[in-house]
Amino acid sequence: MSDATLTPAVAAQAPRSPGRARGESLGVQIALIAISLAFLLLFLLLPLVTVFIEAGAKGWEAYRAAITEPDALSAIRLTLLVAAIAVPFNVVVGIAAAWAIAKFEFRGKNLLISLIDLPFSVSPVISGLVFVLLFGAQGYFGPWLQAHDIKIVFALPGLILATVFVTFPFVARELIPHMQSLGSADEEAALTLGASPWRVFFAVTLPNVKWSLFYGVLLCNARAMGEFGAVAVVSGKIRGMTNTMPLHIEILYNEYMGAAAFAVASLLAGLALVTLVLKTLLEWRYGDAIAASRRH
To answer: What is this structure's pTM?
Structure first.
């Protein structure tokens, strides 16, 4: 067979770039990349850089004073406390819900899935208002709570309830499709070999979905610390008592204390960056395992 005969076949099998394979010109590719980079710079990177620039605009002493004054410290502690309670609760309940939905068939399964997605459909402000209508002084349970000296709205329990509600779907929604794609073959094999249900869960089910769980926890924690709408309604915005960091930032900004507001905001931005760095490091260190879990 001559070289002339082989040439068209070889040319047909030669690899082509994805863009050229779809008939896209180099100019179109460059334009799309430029638009994407411009969007990222304008709407993501520029605001983040602005936060840190404005936070340090009046010098280190002003920055330190803004984040160490009593109301700021109270807001920081409260934000961390609410996240420390809400996130583990959502992890436990999210795993249980995902396990039930993915591994079992039961009546009301579709209803449970709809309820898990409910916080995505309801405005956080509306969800906060619902808690006020239920547990406020004039709410459905208000008189009984007052008679027993139990405070939910305008106190820590209300903040936790509001945060749990708006952040609940993140863990469950990461786990459900992954568990469904894995099926039950591994669990059934372990049960056949004599493992108890709890041992199957901790030795088989949980390790198989650890990366999906990790991403769900990241999203849940980020939302818990940055939640504003629902928390603003149930907190009453009492300085030094029920103000989380986002609420404290709003108060400072409304009082024309811009540098202090940006200083506290930089802490939230820093927490987000730390979360992103940890996520990136884990992806770099365990990239193959993460990719394998994401392919399921």
So the answer is: 0.81
